[in-house]
Amino acid sequence: MAQFSGKAGATYAFHRARRVFADAERKEELDRRFQIETTEQAVALLGDMKGAMMKVGQMASYLDQGMPENVRHTLAQLQQDAPPMSVALASEVLAAELGCPPNEAFAEFDPDPIAAASIGQVHRALTHDGRAVAVKIQYPGVDEAIGSDLATADVVFRGLAVMFPGLEPEPVVAELKARLSEELDYEKEAANQRMFAAFYHDHPYIHIPHVVDELSTRRVLTTELATGARFDEVQTWSQDERNLAAETIYRFAFGSIYRLGAFNGDPHPGNYLFRPGGEVTFLDFGLVKQFTGESLAGFEKMLSSIVLEPDPAVFRRTVEDLGLLKRDAPFDDEKVVQYFSHFYEFVATPGQYTITEEYATATVRHIFDPTGEFADIRKAANVPSDFVIIQRINLGLYAIFGQLNATGDWRRIAEELWPWVDGPPSTPMGIAAATWQPGPALAVDG
């Protein structure tokens, strides 16, 4: 990182010097080239570093729509096309885990990865009984890399606590360490994936690849091979198709929280495969948060007191009880509701609502901007452990919806998913899903 900073600084100095003698049109071209070159350098660095730093680059590619388009496009390579490890190294890991080389473990094994992500890369293969599978192989040493990243998390969050005095860094760091450490254990991920696959078995729109247990270990995860369009292709589809894709993602994310009691905490474009008509295959179940009945009851009380039966006093007491806000902070209940209502705007608004890129960007800044109208509330706000991973809804899921310009009657769809409302089907997708029966919610240890 230090070497990159030095190189980028030198490049910037040279860029400024060239700019002095350029006309306006030439300056614009030089600026654009500088952005691309610098971002390409960052992508190469973050892609090689893997682990938590690469995840930061992935999030940056779709989180803030204020970045130049060419920068976002270049960073998007980290969503599925990071620099892969060598074939020899991948084969070595696989042989150590499965007890034999790839050409013995599988009838066919493609040495060229189809995706390379922050913790492992994925290869196509064919089992000896003729099943097409995806084989995810963990990078050797990535556990040490993430351990190193997490070791500095305490410092980062203590620094944030200076800007946000209400933030208690210890629970945040503990939750991040627990969840990200679990990502390194593919046996845990396999258990998560089996749980989701069992629950969503035979769902008309939501598909989860099945785990091939006999070819999976702590560092190798083999699942049925899924196919479909990537997110960048979906963005070229009609608005109706994009709305259907967004509705499925919405139903999966919030239906899983309230009906399964679990949240797949890594919502980014590289983890979805799409088919026309709203079918979506969901990938990567390494980062999953499971909620207790008590936690879900707290979510219900928040939603009821700010959306269904608005009551500022009850809502404030609820967020204080849940640890989201310090007690007896010096501002009135109405202001608390004004601050938090941003996150509920699209489900509080009756009728059709479009989630725009501007809304997604505003959501990120609503959380982190330490100035402005709500500066006092931000200073009193906290992130309890139950809300650490679920913040990926605000810091990721809405950004995806914004890129899709997702339009729907989110209030009525939400009421279908909220068990305490259990509203009637409100869309054709809802009608089709109403005939589906959830499978058993398999227990996952931990």
Task: Give a verbal description of the structure.
The protein has 446 residues and is of the alpha+beta class. It contains 22 helices and twelve strands. The protein has helices at residues 2-20, 24-49, 51-63, 69-75, 87-98, 102-105, 142-151, 153-163, 169-183, 186-199, 231-234, 239-260, 293-308, 312-321, 333-340, 345-348, 357-368, 375-380, 385-388, 393-404, 410-417, 428-434; strands at residues 108-109, 115-116, 120-126, 132-138, 206-207, 220-224, 262-264, 272-275, 279-282, 288-290, 353-354, 407-408. The strands form four sheets. Strands 1, 2, 3, 4 and 6 form a five-stranded antiparallel β-sheet that branches. The chain has a three-stranded mixed β-sheet with strand order 5-9-8, covered by helices on one side. The longest helix has 26 residues, at 24-49. The two termini are 34 Å apart.
* Gap between N and C termini: 34 Å
| Percent range of helical residues | 40-55%
Strand content: 5-15%
Q: Biggest sheet: strands, sense, closure?
A: 5 strands, antiparallel
Give the gist of this structure:
This protein is α+β, with helices and mostly antiparallel strands and 446 residues long.
